[in-house]
Structure formats: structure tokens, C-alpha cells
Design goal:
Pfam families: ACT (PF01842), ACT_ACR9_3rd (PF24931), GlnD_UR_UTase (PF08335), HD (PF01966), NTP_transf_2 (PF01909). This is Bifunctional uridylyltransferase/uridylyl-removing enzyme. InterPro entries: ACT-like_dom_sf (IPR045865), ACT_dom (IPR002912), HD/PDEase_dom (IPR003607), HD_domain (IPR006674), NT_sf (IPR043519), PII_UdlTrfase/GS_AdlTrfase (IPR013546), Polymerase_NTP_transf_dom (IPR002934), UTase/UR (IPR010043). This protein has about 950 residues and is α+β, with helices and mostly antiparallel strands. The strands form four sheets. A four-stranded mixed beta sheet has the order 3-2-1-4, sandwiched between helices. Helix 12 (about 280-305) packs across helix 13. About 45% of the residues are buried.
């Protein structure tokens, strides 16, 4: 129903005395009688006050506990919030009686008018919410009433309540509201708790007439801008795997904002009145209520579990809440993953409701016109036709439908709308977006097989403009999941892992965005090789499809890489690909993790590594495609996951493998790359003589030059030069990396079999958690190891002091000044989220990966001190560690050790291999 044609609504509805007229949360009469008896029996004012507060605390605890038990027994979230609000109402009335009659007796019974505002004014409280109060005074307030307010506040503070309060007259309220949008917002939801109803009605009437009736466009603009800033602070995506239930995109605050805006514009008091106002259809309002109910249910449980006002749905509470809500594990998805998928679908529904409200406001002409229209004097541009899409028009610089039956007449328009918007670089009009959500049932098997629809979709996906934006719009509207049903299965699907920052669908869309940025040259400095190769490949469309589909089979009981390849084999012919190109896409998806795993977990100087990757890739074109796909995948995981070191590892692996695929010849062979790295370092050391530099360059094996980034090579050169000048054989150096959230500790010491174990043990004793390591040996027998530990402090100077303590600990340990078991371990920092994960530890031993070494790969739940224990166990087994590759995927550690026995031989004995497995599994607490 159009907002213009909506029936008249009551302009100034009378506020009820209580939001809970049918309920009495606390037995106020009994409590007051108990207080009166206490006062009669107690002459000591201090003792009376303490006992009175204890009586109120007991009543409050019982009321809150009753709400919690009802919720955990299957109760509704709204009911819990309303019960807690009713408990607070009754507590306030009793506390007011206590203050007026006994704590401030000189007041003569004078009492303020107590008004609940803000969230409390809605008559809904989460367990840890603040209590926002307005003490409304007449124009000439009696000093006695102010003393009652003071006494009341002290009682509330004694009850450890978080109270936000203000004492104002009606005129003062209106003056403040004119100047402050936040106060205006709190007054929208003002509710009388106790006191002068006539005074409260005066405030309501004047606020409506003098402010609300005159400032609707201003309020709407401010609230929408405030929402954008809030969402930006909380994380722009609504698909963060640890979302903020209150402040995040698609959370409760978004629903509150919608209601504030509509109450302000349409001046309704009850959300149900939004149907009569034409904002929501009955079905849309039912969706509003379902979203609100779900989010309140989650938020109340979250507060009860945390014991405080915690709004972030972190990993450690997700599973308990999922189980409280009755989710179970089935169809290959854990209970927690099914719960979180529901959460994200609700967050998406909140986004749909936001679009609906914006459309209604625009039709009412309350929502400001777009910024670019204001630049031409707020003159609305006349709609203009679109030549090759006659069912659409451009209105106020947004794409809209010409007629409301556009999707009914031609369902292909459900895809064409997004194609037009992407091609034109224009947003979609809210009216068209709302019509799309109402027409989703028209996306059926017939449309999915339509050649034109598939052609348009492929053009959207492979666009050189903004495919990420277009795909996200399609996903938000529900179109993408219906048009590509396999994609629909991962919409809102979270990966219960600290490594992944987004849901699967959001990750895939972001990966396409990264690929587009690489192609557009926007990431040249960070990924130079991919930025170069993407313009040399012959299968651009296949690359975009592989990136879009690489995780599409997540959440199934089978290997998602292989199952995803099967999905591609069915989908690509529908999109017009030939059998050969379809198979190319499938192969990329099937092996999309291989290059990343090899780069981070294998010795890149070992020829077998490149040979293994070459056997999978088979052609240099496929290797280039895989490199670019891998980069896009890692960069789309989340902030801080990609870094220069991973880029260097991937480039090194690429060049090593290219040599193999080229039959021993490469466009840039190994020797040339080593020489180029040395020349780069030479230019960065202008104060060195040529003989000095040549001697220094000979100290490093080729693997060093291929693996270490130039900035760290410069630091290493300075450190080794200083050591030689001072005749030292042991030195440490520390640097911080704010972007990655790690601190690097470089150690130079004489190499020996137990060196890494000693370093790891010293780090653990200092409370440092190792997350990565680079390990090298110089030609003159020095170990050059860089250990990366988790950052502990935000301030740079604090973190540097901590890192220097860690380095000092390492030096003392390696000099033999202390034994590790003599160092008092620092209290290990605990990440409570890690306790939410259970990872079965695994140990694999492989003699085929390397010609010289046995590779021992260990995976399991990461923890502080894990590397110390693993390397210590290997040392005690008389194994020599040639290289170590430490990778952390969130809560999961995957460590690979290249080892030999003390004679330099591989570990071939089955008995010895079994002993290694038993010892390393014991480090995870597994006895076998």
C-alpha cells in the first residue's frame, strides 16, 4: 500500500501507564510491607539502608532468575526482555517509595515523575542493559523532590545498576531535543513509570507538535547517516562470523533505527500501526516481528551466558546458545553452524526491511534525495529510458522498473535488472528492490536454463567494472541463491573457525572483488606477479568462474574441493562453456588449496615440492591461473590474513614450479632470481664495499634469497654485520608488525639440533605464542631464525618492551645461563574462544615429499607453547630438524618438520615412525 494513500493514523496517541498492564513482576506490596517492618524494628539509619538494599537486591535477583529460567525452558526472547523491563519497573517504584518515605523523609512525600527513555522506554531490557531514566520536573521543581531523586539514585547504584539519568523540566527537554538528535531519539520511546501523568502527557504532546511534526526529513537523514557510521565501526559486512548482535549490520540496532524513523515520520506508537500507515504489508510486518524475536532471544541468552552486557556473538558462546535454541547437528552441518546460518539469514531479512522502509519514505518524500541531486538544487531529474532494456528506467539516478509487472511479464528481467545496474554503475531503486523480493518465486528451473539469463549472469560475473557489488546486490535480494541453487546452499553459511572472517557466500563474493582489483591494477604493489599474469592468461572467464565457485560445496559431508569440481561440471555448460573449459574450471576448484598449502607448509628449496605441484598443474597456463586464484582466495579470507611473506612464498613456489614445467628452462630462472635479490639488497646497502657485500652474499644459501622479503634481508645484513664487528656469535633483534598483529624476534646463534626447541621453549616461558617462523642456516654454521609471536599490547612502546623481554629470555636460555624448567612461566594468555573448538590431532610421516628428509606433519588445536613441546619431543627422539614450517589457521596449527636422524638419514623404520607419532600425539594429550 502506498504511504500517500495510507489511512489516517492517530497523531498523538495516549501513552499507557505501563507497558505491562497485565503483569506484576515483583510483589511490590509485600516488599514495601517488609521495608516498613524493617524501619520500625531498626533505629540505625545506616543499618536500615543496608538491609533495605539487601531486600531489594534479593527481589531483583529472583525476578531476573525467573526470567532466565523461563527463557532457558524454551521461552521467547521478547517475553524475557519484557519481563526484565517489568521487574525493573516494579523495582523502581519500590525504590522510589523507599527513598521518599524513609531515606529522604524531609521531602514530605514529594516525588519526581519517573520516565523510562531509550531502550528501557520500549519496555524491553536485555539482562545487562543500562537503565535510562528521565526525572521530569514541573517548571518550578521542589527542592524536596530533587532530594528524593538523589536518594533513589544512590539506592540504584548500591544495587550495582548502570543508570543513565537526567533531571529536566518539559521546556528543558524540548530545548535539549532541538539541539541533540540523541535526546530526540530517547524521547521517541519515553514511557511513564511513576508520577504525574498530566506532566508526562504535556511533554509528549509538545514534543510531537513542536519538534516531531516539523523535523522528519532532518531526523531521517541523521539516523540513516548514524546507521552507516555505526555499521562501519562494527564491521561493514553483516556476514562477519563473530557478529555484533546489537550494533552490527542486520542487528537489533538496525531494527530499532527502522522503528525510530517510522515512529517519527508516521507518528505511530505501536509497531503494528506500520501496516495501517502503509509502510509494511502484513507479511512484511510478520517478518519484522520474527527478526526481532530471534535477535532478542539470542541477545538475552548472550547476556546471561556472559554475565554482563556482551554484544559480540563470539565463538565460545555460539555453541551453547545454539544448543539452548534447540539446533542439532545434521546433514553435514554442526549445530552451531546451523544456528549461525539462521542468524545470518535473519540479518539479511533485516536488510530487506531497511530497503522497504527507505522505499516507503522516498515515496512519502521524507527520505532526502541522493547527494548528486542536491548538487543541482534538489531538482528531481526526469526519468529516462534505457535503450536496450525497455522494461527499466533511470529515476533519480537509480535503476527502476517501468511497470510493476516487469518481472511477471519477463522473468529474465530479474537478472537483467542487476546487469543494467552494474553496466550503468548505478544503484537500484528501493521500489525495484522490493519488487524483486516479492518476485523470487519466478526464478525457477525454466529461468535457470534460459540462455539469455545465463549470458547476462556471466557478463555480470566477469565484468571489468564492479562485479563484487553486483553479486552482493543479487545475493542480498535473494536472486543469486535461487538462480545458482548450489550457491543458495552456502548463503549465510559460517565456517566455525577462527581463521575465516566471513560466511562462505560473502567470502566467495569478496574473492571475485579481489580478482577484479588485481585485474584493474589496484593491487600491483602487493601482488605484482598476479597483477602481471592476469593480463597474459588465455582463460579469463574460467578464472572468474573458478574463483566464484571454489568453496561452493562447503558444508557437505564430502571433500568440498572435489564436490565443488562436480558442481562446476554441471553449472558451466549451462553458462555456455565448452567441455574443455568446463574441465579447466573443475580442475582449478579441485586443487584450489594445493598451492597455498605447499607454499606455507613445504620446503620450497626442496626440488620435490615444485615437482609435486607441476605434476598437478601440468601446464604453465594452469599454474598462472592457480597462482591468481590462490591469491584472491587468501586475500578474501579477512583483514590481516594476507601478508608480504605469504606473497613471497607463493612467488617462490611459482618460479620453482615454472622451471619444472618448462623442462628446466624458465623465463626467470632460479639463478637469475637469486642474483636479482642480491642486487636489490646491494642497492639498499650503499655504505658497504663490494668485497664486503660479496663475502656476505656467499654466507646465504639460495633458499634464503628466494624466501625472505627485501626489507627483512636489509635488517639481517645490518644485524650480522654488527655481530661480526663485535665478535659476537649470539644476537637477537625485535620488530613489530601492527598490520599482521605479530611481533618478529630474529635470533642468530650457532646452529645445533636443539636450537629451535630452545627458542620455542624460551618464548613459551615468556608467555609468547609462536604463530610463524622462518628458519635458515648460513654457510658458516650460524642459524638465522625469525620467530613471529602474537601481539599482546596495542601501544607500540609496550609491545617493544615485551618483545625485548622475550629476546632476553631467548639469549639467556641459549647461553645456558638458565634452564627452561627454572624459568617461571609467565601466565599464558588465554583466548576463551579457543575452548570452543575440538580438533582431532593428526601426525603424518612421509618419505616421498623430500629426497633428503622425512617430513613429519602435525596438525591440531593451537595453544601457547605447542611449538616448544613439539620441537622438544623431536629433539628427545634424537631427530635433527632441517627446516620447520609453522602455519596457523585461526585455532588450528599445521606444522611441518623436515627431519633426519643424527646420521643424516631418513626415518625408514616403522617402529621409529610409530614412536614419533606416539610422542607427538602425547603433546596434544592423546595417549596411544
Amino acid at each position: 500500500m502506498s504511504a500517500v494513500a495510507a489511512p489516517a493514523v492517530e497523531r498523538r496517541p495516549r501513552s499507557p501507564r505501563s507497558h505491562h498492564p497485565a503483569s506484576r513482576a515483583l510483589d511490590r506490596a509485600r516488599i514495601i510491607d517488609e521495608l516498613a517492618a524493617l524501619r520500625a524494628a531498626c533505629d540505625d539509619d545506616g543499618a536500615f539502608r543496608r538491609e533495605a538494599v539487601a531486600i531489594l537486591q534479593s527481589a531483583l535477583d529472583k525476578g531476573r532468575e525467573g526470567a532466565r529460567r523461563a527463557l532457558e525452558a524454551g521461552g521467547k526472547g521478547r517475553a524475557c526482555a519484557e519481563t526484565l523491563s517489568a521487574v525493573e519497573d516494579d523495582l523502581l517504584r519500590v525504590a522510589l517509595e523507599l527513598a521518599a518515605r524513609w531515606l529522604a523523609p524531609a521531602s514530605g512525600g514529594a516525588r519526581p515523575t519517573v520516565v523510562a527513555v531509550g531502550g528501557y522506554g520500549r519496555g524491553m531490557l536485555a539482562p545487562g542493559s543500562d537503565i535510562d531514566l528521565l526525572f521530569l520536573m514541573p517548571d518550578k521543581p521542589a527542592p524536596a523532590a530533587e532530594k528524593v531523586v538523589e536518594a533513589l539514585l544512590y539506592v540504584l547504584w548500591d544495587l550495582k545498576q548502570k543508570v543513565g539519568h537526567a533531571t529536566r523540566t518539559v521546556d528543558e527537554c524540548l530545548k535539549q531535543a532541538r539541539a541533540d538528535m540523541t535526546i530526540r531519539t530517547t524521547l521517541i520511546e519515553a514511557r511513564l513509570v511513576s508520577g504525574d501523568e498530566t506532566l508526562f502527557e504535556t511533554l509528549q504532546t509538545r514534543f510531537d507538535r513542536e519538534i516531531v511534526a516539523r523535523t522528519a526529513p532532518e531526523f531521517v537523514a541523521a539516523k540513516l547517516a548514524e546507521r552507516e557510521e555505526r555499521v562501519r565501526r562494527a564491521g561493514a559486512s553483516r556476514y562477519l562470523v563473530e557478529p555484533n548482535v546489537k550494533e552490527g549490520k542486520g542487528g537489533l540496532r538496525d531494527l530499532n533505527t527502522l522503528f525510530w524513523i517510522t515512529k517519527y515520520v508516521y507518528r505511530v506508537r505501536n509497531p503494528h500501526d506500520l501496516i495501517a500507515a502503509g509502510v509494511f504489508s502484513p507479511r512484511e510486518f510478520a517478518l519484522f516481528r520474527r527478526c526481532e524475536e530471534f535477535l532478542w532471544s539470542v541477545r538475552c541468552r548472550l547476556h546471561f551466558l556472559a554475565g554482563r552486557a556482551e554484544e559480540r556473538l563470539s565463538f565460545d558462546v555460539q555453541r551453547p546458545i545454539a544448543r539452548q535454541l534447540g539446533y542439532s547437528t545434521r546433514a553435514g552441518q554442526a549445530d552451531v553452524e546451523r544456528f549461525m546460518k539462521h542468524y545470518f539469514l535473519v540479518a539479511k531479512d533485516v536488510g530487506d526491511l531497511t530497503a522497504i522502509v527507505c522505499a516507503a519514505l522516498e515515496e512519502r518524500q521524507t527520505k532526502p534525495v541522493p547527494v548528486f541531486d542536491r548538487f543541482i538544487g534538489k531538482i528531481r531529474r526526469r526519468p529516462r529510458a534505457i535503450a536496450d532494456a525497455e522494461d527499466f528506467k533511470v529515476e533519480t539516478e537509480r535503476v527502476d522498473v517501468v511497470r510493476p509487472d516487469a518481472f511477471e511479464r519477463d522473468p529474465v528481467n530479474l537478472i537483467r535488472l542487476f546487469w543494467v545496474a552494474e553496466r550503468s554503475n548505478l544503484p537500484i531503486h528501493p521500489n525495484a528492490a522490493r519488487l524483486v523480493t516479492q518476485s523470487l518465486k519466478r526464478i525457477d528451473a525454466r529461468l535457470r536454463e534460459d540462455p539469455e539469463a545465463n549470458r547476462l549472469f556471466l557478463e555480470i560475473l566477469t565484468s571489468r567494472h564492479a562485479p563484487e557489488t553486483a553479486l552482493r546486490r543479487m545475493n542480498e535480494a535473494g536472486v543469486l541463491g535461487r538462480f545458482i541453487p548450489d550457491f543458495g546452499r552456502v548463503v549465510g553459511m559460517m565456517q566455525f573457525s577462527m581463521y575465516h572472517h566471513y560466511t562462505v557466500d560473502e567470502h566467495l563474493i569478496r574473492a571475485v572483488g579481489v580478482l577484479n582489483a588485481i585485474e584493474g591494477g589496484r593491487l600491483k604493489a602487493e601482488v605484482p606477479l598476479s597483477s602481471e599474469f592476469i593480463h597474459k592468461i588465455s582463460h579469463r572467464t574460467e578464472l572468474y568462474l573458478a574463483v566464484f565457485l571454489h568453496d561452493i560445496a562447503k558444508g557437505r559431508p564430502t571433500d568440498h574441493s572435489k564436490t565443488g569440481a562436480d558442481v562446476a561440471r554441471k553449472l558451466c555448460p549451462r553458462l555456455g562453456l565448452t567441455p574443455a573449459n568446463t574441465e579447466r574450471v573443475a580442475k582449478l576448484i579441485e586443487h584450489h588449496l594445493v598451492m597455498s598449502n605447499m607454499a606455507q607448509g613445504r620446503d620450497l628449496s626442496d626440488p620435490r615440492t615444485a615437482e609435486a605441484l607441476a605434476a598437478i598443474m601440468q601446464t604453465q597456463e594452469q599454474l598462472k591461473l592457480m597462482l591468481i586464484l590462490t591469491v584472491a582466495d587468501i586475500r578474501a579470507v579477512g583483514p590481516g590474513v594476507w601478508n608480504g611473506w605469504k606473497g613471497q612464498l607463493l612467488r617462490t613456489l611459482y618460479w620453482e614450479t615454472e622451471v619444472v614445467l618448462g623442462g628446466g628452462h624458465s623465463a626467470v630462472n632460479r639463478d637469475a632470481r637469486v642474483q636479482a635479490a642480491q642486487e636489490t639488497l646491494r642497492r639498499a646497502l650503499p655504505g658497504w664495499s663490494d668485497p664486503e657485500f660479496d663475502a656476505y652474499a656467499q654466507r646465504h644459501y639460495p633458499a634464503y634469497w628466494l624466501k625472505v622479503e627485501p626489507e627483512r634481508q636489509v635488517a639481517h645484513a645490518a644485524l650480522l654485520y654488527a655481530m661480526a664487528a663485535d665478535l659476537r656469535s649470539l644476537a637477537t633483534e625485535v620488530t613489530t608488525d601492527c598490520f599482521r598483529g605479530v611481533t618478529a624476534v630474529t635470533v642468530v646463534a650457532p646452529d645445533h639440533p636443539r636450537l629451535l626447541s630452545g627458542i620455542a621453549g624460551a618464548c613459551a616461558a615468556a608467555g609468547a605464542n609462536i604463530v610463524d617462523a622462518q628458519i635458515f642456516t648460513t654457510t658458516d654454521g650460524l642459524a638465522l631464525d625469525t620467530i613471529f609471536v602474537s601481539r599482546a599490547f596495542e601501544r607500540e612502546e609496550d609491545e617493544l618492551r615485551r618483545a625485548q623481554r622475550i629476546a632476553k629470555n631467548i639469549e639467556r636460555t641459549l647461553r645456558g645461563e638458565v634452564r627452561l624448567d627454572e624459568i617461571a612461566p609467565a601466565r599464558e594468555s588465554r583466548d576463551l574462544r579457543r575452548g570452543a573448538f575440538a580438533i582431532e590431532p593428526e601426525v603424518t610421516i612421509d618419505n616421498t615429499i623430500s629426497r633428503r628428509y622425512t617430513v613429519v606433519e602435525v596438525s591440531g588445536l593451537d595453544r601457547p607453547g605447542l611449538l616448544r613441546d613439539l620441537t622438544g619431543s623431536l629433539s628427545k627422539l634424537n631427530l635433527n630438524i632441517g627446516s620447520a614450517h609453522i602455519v596457523t589457521f585461526g585455532e588450528k596449527a599445521v606444522d611441518a618438520f623436515y627431519v633426519t636422524d643424527l646420521t643424516g638419514q631418513k626415518i625408514n623404520s616403522p617402529a621409529k615412525q610409530a614412536a614419533i607419532k606416539r610422542r607427538l600425539l602425547a603433546d596434544f594429550g592423546v595417549e596411544r
